[in-house]
Design goal:
Length: about 80
Amino acid sequence: MSGNRRGRQKLETCASCGRAVPRGKAVEYSSRTHFTTDLKEDNVTYTGFVDQYYCISCAKHRKIFEKKKQQAQRLKEKREAYG
Ligand SMILES: [Zn+2]
């Protein structure tokens, strides 16, 4: 009965190692995915963003933090460009 008083956080499974990580600690990372259904006649391609969660060690290993930094920089640049 100590520490986290925000109630139970939803657990996310790490997309890399399958470890259960609470939302607050998991690193969210959205990646573009392609789904292709190569049936005989219909060629349907779905593209979408899928939110994946990684535990901290996997995020570090995959350099997601750096990517997030780059994204933040890009956003900053955009904001500066538009005023
Ligand atoms: Zn992991």
